[in-house]
Amino acid sequence: MKILIRAIVSFFVFVVDVVYGNRPYPRFYVLETIARVPYFSYLSVLHLYETLGSWRKADLLKVHFAETWNELHHLLIMESLGGNQHWFDRFVAHLIGVAYYWVAVVLYMLSPGFAYYLMELIENHAYHTYDNYLRTHEAELKTQSAPQVAIDYYRDGDLYMFEEFQTTPDHEFRRPKVDNLYDVFVNIRDDECEHVKTMTALQIPEARLTLKSPHTVFVAAKVLPAEEV
Asked: Where are the alpha helices (DSSP H) in 86-180?
């Protein structure tokens, strides 16, 4: 099954590279529109299980909602940079997003581990895409201002949701710079790395039962004596 998932992701990456090779912001807009979708799928299935009374895990819901909130702000940043100006790009993003939603729902119901593996590959691709873009356009990006939506999300706004998707083994949350557009893309790249870590960890079956959200862990670390944390 993992071989099939890797083949599907590789084909998708190839198509996106061909269509958007020389149009980075529309490409990022499409990727971020699609990247939100699986988290919606996970939340839908988890809410269904809870409604049926068969399973409840509030911390998992919190983390997945924080992940889609994070991807939403990536998307808003790309829209502020003009990535959604052309109808074709919006059409492609929304069409793939609707199809992907149902694929992710079915896959998550059949095998959460495989659903998380699929998302791990996609988030890993996003990480390397942004990392390559940063290395290629560093000087140019450092001369441009950060969009206001990025400043609000990463620095000046309510940071609870930004903190809630982070992996924080040392109980310290990221406080990134947002001085220019280069910083913004660094932050987005690092966010994708956080998603990869979470998707990898959740492929362990018991992790889905024992997962604690970052704020739950942080509060426990403050309340419990050091030797008990």
From this structure: 87-110, 112-142, 148-151, 160-164
